[in-house]
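Students often ask why we bother encoding 3D structure as a string. The short answer is that it lets us treat folding as translation between two languages. Here is a chain of 269 residues written in the first language.
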Amino acid sequence: MAKWMKVLSLSLLFAGAACVYNGGAIDMDDIIHVSSEKEKKMGMSLSAQVEKKFESVEDAAVQERFHNIGKRIAKVCERKEFVYHFKVLKAKEGEEIEKYYNAFTLPGGYVYMFEPLFDALETDDRIAAVTAHEIGHTTARHVIKRLQSSLGTNILMLLALATAQDGRTVAEANEAITHLMLSYSREDEFEADRLSIKYLKKAGFNPDGAVGSLLVLKELRKKGREFPYSPYKSHPYLSERIAAARSEIKGYTDFESYINLPDEKESPY
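And here it is in the second language, the structure alphabet:
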């Protein structure tokens, strides 16, 4: 009986959230069957696990800077139903620094950036660009789409309950976090870049920060492992994103962007 009640509860949660649109950031035909309230609960659940796994940077000035930049971006995005949270995390000692040139977002507006990337970006415009890109993933519901496809609806709904603390649920939460720290699909990454440029302009940042942040990432990731170019890879090369971002800002593809597109010998970075 208890098992059937649990299934019924999950079904009601899912059914009650049907036909929720993406807030106007992308095609309105793209329907995600998870309500904003469920996203908030997932974010609360997952953020608790993130902050158990990683220490926060103790420098209050760093956290305030990130918070202030993030709030400016959040103010101009389409999804105003969330209270956005921004935090800079420390890299773990003894691990390869390259894996911490990263930022990621959780459902419900929780945005994290690791300290090595935050420091490398240097300027407010570049930090804002990466932050806007992550908020773009939230606005366009890429976060929920990714979790739905990788974990399945039932696990997603269990995370939305935000109450279970058993070992299995914690393990599933950690798996969800791992998925969200990886690159998204080509389409979603390009979409988040376009939204980033839009938000930078509206928030009063220099949109060239989008290109600048990608150039920084490209230099940082050159230290990583090299792979042959493939036009069929699931997420875009940084050269492709840089070219697309320049085109979005200028309204056309310039010669510099064209000649710097990846070839078969280029690293994915």
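Translate back mentally: Residues 197 and 207 are 5 Å apart (CA to CA). Keep this in mind for the problem set.
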